[in-house]
Amino acid sequence: MKSLFYPFLVSDLDGTLLNDSKEISAENRDSIALFRENGGIFTLATGRSYKESIKFIEQLQLTCPVILYNGAMIYDPATGQLNPVCLISRSLMLSILKDLEQKLPSSVDIFVYGTDKIYGTQVGELTKAWSDADFSLELLPSFASLPDDVVCVKLVAVADTEEMKELVQWSRANSHLPIDCVLSADHYFEILPAGASKGNALLKVLKTLGLSPSQAAAVGDHLNDLSMFRIAGLPAAVKNAHPQAQNQARLILPSNNDSAVAHLIQNHLLPTLSQTSN
Question: Is the pTM value of this prediction over 0.85?
Answer without folding.
Answer: yes
